[in-house]
User: Fold these one by one.
Assistant:
Number 1:
Amino acid sequence: MQELAEKTSQATADFLPLNGTDHVEFYVANARQAAYYYRAAFGMQLAAYSGPETGNHECASYVIQQNKIRFVLTTPLQPDNAIAQHILRHGDGVRDIALWVDDAEAAYRETTARGARGVRKPELLQDDSGEVLVSAIATYGDTIHSFIERRSYRGSFLPGYVAVTEPDRVARPVGLKYIDHMVGNVGWGEMNQWVEFYEKVMGFRLYQHFDDKDISTEYSALMSKVMANGNGRVKFPINEPAEGRKKSQIEEYLEYYKGPGVQHIAMATDDIVATVAKLSRQGVEFLRVPATYYADLERRVGKIDEPLGTLQDLGILVDRDDEGYMLQIFTRPVEDRPTLFYEIIQRKGSRSFGKGNFKALFEAIEREQALRGNL
Ligand code: FE2
């Protein structure tokens, strides 16, 4: 009974119920080639398309998927529009972290009433496969959150897109299952403002936090707070730079992305050894930590199922907390600007974010920053 009462009060408290991440839309300079990269390297499969051939003369968009992970890669067809402006300023990057809701009208109403800046009023999109209601609000930098209400839409993605039905001869799936979390970098002193945004405007709560004592090396320092929505399906860590001796990786990001934006997307797998081995063979480049990391790993995390030698060969990191352990690895940035990168993660009981790996990782990132002349 008490449990039921708690559930009820939780349900009424959650003014923004989310079913999960619907998709992530990137604005990129060449969507056809970016789609090839994500298919051949990361194993995404082409699912839908919108462009001049389908009557869209403003942009071309490729929808690529792997299990529950869905990306949309969009490129402008002319220079004088908002998509082209976004790319000119930020380079390739995430424009929209779109959230799947049952009521896009209420999501818009509740968040804008609490101070969100609306960027798209609820709009009904329709085609032969049914209808989808879409609205959107602004978050950090030029990033937005769309709310997608699918209303049992039967099409491949959204009205206006055509399904790609022929088998994808480029895609080489690697077992990536779903998005575990997506991290935003914000400016100096702005972390708490965005934590408050996710709390007050979107009904998220503080899930975990790390300060500069947890996350600092000689040069890099950052502070991070992890925000989670009511049912815990959506997690957004927010980073801000902290004072260090030299330029931190967050500052480097802000300088090249020209402001706040998505720093990394963590994608989960059930078998990180197989996934990372395949990604490496397919050309995905990972950050490497020194061999000394593995020398005292067992002392730090205790017994684990995976052979340490294999983890070392692949560069996979391990961290443990009181609930279990997790394995993770980070790619190098996937653009020439040192901005967006990916994390591959496998959770074995642990719900944390790899705090014990921060120091080794930051030192690896700093070696790359130094090579770029940005330290
Ligand atoms: Fe992460």
Number 2:
Amino acid sequence: MSMAKQRRVAIVGTGSYLPERVLTNADLEKIVDTTDEWIRTRTGILERRLARGDEVTSDMAAAAASRALESAGIAPTEVDLILVATITPDMPFPSTACYVQDKIGATNAFCMDVSAACSGFIYAMESARAHILAGGVKTALVIGAEKLSSVMDWEDRATCVLFGDGAGAVVLRESTDGRGILSSFMGSDGSLSHLLNLPGGGSRYPASEQTLKDRLHCIKMTGNEVFKHAVRCMCDAGNRALDRCGLTEDDVRWIVPHQANLRIIQAIASRLGGSIERFIVNLDKVGNVSGASIPLALDEAVRDGRVKPGDKVLLVAFGGGFTWGAMLVEM
Ligand code: ACO
């Protein structure tokens, strides 16, 4: 079968949303025992955005989704599937995707959330692709959206300096010209779940006075352990995705990594992508926005003209679970 005849799924629109309020490293110096110098040199983050108290994950997701649909020239009623990757849903159920459906008027869609922490967006893209290729879905909206400020332990300096709020979205349709998702690779390792999680509020530790006292409703992370696995798994996933379509890193124009830490991105660059110049980096302005991180960075780079039609872009992510994945997309 020739390459042109292979059925593929393409990104036909992108959008994103960032809340207005900026929290700088100087602001954090007033909240916990930290310094701008430590945060900058250990993470590369200079500031992050915080949602308003009354602004929930589905509000940000809906704003990003509307922009993505607008850029694709597709009406909300044409959407058949909405997937929201998030670890900060509006509530445990119903899904945040159902709230998004209502907010944007996508009355013909079926809707669900995807739980894979910082890898959630790539996992959701892979799922939407499968639905489209299976034939039941023509147009899918894939959204990464997080209000991480709602699960932050503002007394834990090791985590509260890292995260931010925001949303990004893409519209997927079957490709008409051979461009689109060329390959992917996904992995998980549940035996390392304890290194990065949010323990409270589920069936293991239902909300109680004790879980509140133990701060179990906040993100817990063993940062330096996560760091090592993140570098190894993202490099491995990137290489395997390239192998699967017979390409090498030289064929890739841009790499959009999960934005957790500039040192992680530099380590990946030295092992995988060669030059850091080929990496789209926005964590200095937004911090780690978990599932929203990749679509936020991608939309920014599409809108400012860095990512152009025809560019091969490699998305790579790693997150709680552990979960990881890579996806090669011809835009
Ligand atoms: N300000 C000042 N000092 C701090 C701060 C802070 N904000 N946070 C930690 N420190 C201290 C620690 O207490 C420790 O002090 P000690 O040596 O006296 O014990 C020291 O700094 C070093 O701590 P480490 O945790 O070893 O620092 P490290 O260089 O590993 O950086 C970081 C920490 C930024 C968290 C890093 O490990 C990291 O980025 N990890 C990966 C994060 C990631 O990829 N997450 C995945 C996705 S997230 C998701 O799925 C939701």
Number 3:
Amino acid sequence: MAILPIYTYDHPVLKQVAKPVENITDDLIQFVNAMLETMNNADGIGLAANQVGDERAVAVVDLSELEDEKKKSKIKTPPIILINPRITLFSEETSDSEEGCLSLPTYRDSVNRPEKIQIQFFDLQMHEHTLEVEGLLSRVMQHELDHLQGKYFFERVSAVRRAMAHPKLRRIQLGQVEADYPLFSPKSLTSSRFPKKRK
Ligand code: ZN
């Protein structure tokens, strides 16, 4: 297992469309485990493979801390592993909510998205699943599937808000931001940091 550095804006891999996974290999299982550890270390609730420099169509989502807190349950909600995911239905109803992204440290903005989706994906046993989800889970899945299509969440905010965010995005682009998890910025040789774990 390993904690991988998270690639930041605007590494070219973050603009790439992911390639479908054809077989479940030991290498893929190890990679998914590393993604889960990387997401957990960064206190993230979702991570797409290209955020750690990989082209495969894989994403992980983990709302367990939020859900377990809400339910006051001791039963751990497992993370969801999405292999070759695709959204097959979007609701007409939309909602606005603030989003952040591990590849865009320090930047948050409000994004309008469909409230409900139907999503199809494979798990690590290559079993196919179809789920209808709403609320935060729907939003996180849409955010991660955008990554697998080479799309940042700020591409979905209004032109005005995007212009306002430009200085912040520029600093991220230049590697002039820090985070509590290891970063890989293509523009800075000093951007990889391994500080204490935040909890
Ligand atoms: Zn993101």
